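Proteins fold reproducibly. Look at a sample protein:
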Amino acid sequence: MLFQLPHDDQLYQALLDRDPSYDGRVFVGVSSTGIFCRFTCPARKPKRENCTFFETASEALEMGFRACKKCHPTTSEAEANKAIRTLVTALEDRPDHFWQESDISRLGFDPSTVRRAFKRQFGITFLEMARLTRLRNSFTTLKQGGKMIEAQLDAGFSSSSAFRTAFAKHIGLKPKELRADAPLKADWFDTPLGTMVAVADTTHLHLLEFHDRKALPTELKKLFKTAKGQMGFGTTPIIEETKRQVLTFFEGKHPHFDLPLALHGSEFTRQVWRELQTIPAGETVSYGELAKRLGNPSAARAVARANGANQIAVIIPCHRVIGADGQLTGYGGGLWRKQKLIELELTYKRARSG
């Protein structure tokens, strides 16, 4: 897990030092370029605020980063494996190709052996790695207002049905269901804790989630239904302001948010979400404590359900709720992110008491 790694400041110093002891153990994603590298990469080192650290190459790929062509991070521990070295190089040369097992065979390798080797080395198969690369290309095309057929071709799919299936699996909706002229827009942006998806209209923010949250497809489907299909790719002034405030928060400059939020939930759920926003950055409460604040001490379980249903991450700080024993409890964005958020917010608390 990422939170078991050394502190990010120590990792950044190791990056500056090109420390070979981290080679293959930790990777750095650079938000300003969209590329991830080995610590020993000869390229000019990025600014600290643009760095996100990953334990595996697959994590970086899943966050939308591309492999650096100078240091070849996906081959850091696989130089001795001819199949991995050859296929990763081939993928870098042909990122838009729709790779299949027959391609692997034509290159002289056994598909089942390759599958096990990639899974063992990167946590995903070669074909999954290729699919992530193609889908990233299609997202970029749709975001820029490209037509569906263009996105399909950019994703490397010769079959439109195959493309729709892959896209639906990734975000929970079919591309044809997203209208370019819809008032509700979806966009994504990089943060130090990974890519976030934002959905907003011209007046309110409706959703803000880490892109790999398991519940995201379900949340998008519900929002799509509530909006009666009026959803598409793009940005709005609210999304741009959300990006600015969230990144300012992660930079440690300002702990507060001032954004108009559209709260999709029951009256009790909305009450829980509003109460969450009163918890100062750097403070934590238990579900029981939160229930008492709401005047209903026996509602701890209901509070927990409302907390888990939050679909505006970070801004509605459900990460500030912990177990009664002081331990971290479930967080849709991953416990490692919850710990990182709490650690970041401790700096705000120290600044207040300082």
Summary: The chain has a mean pLDDT of 84. DSSP finds 14 helices and ten strands in the chain. The chain has three domains: 1-68, 78-171, 178-354. The two ends are 32 Å apart (CA to CA).
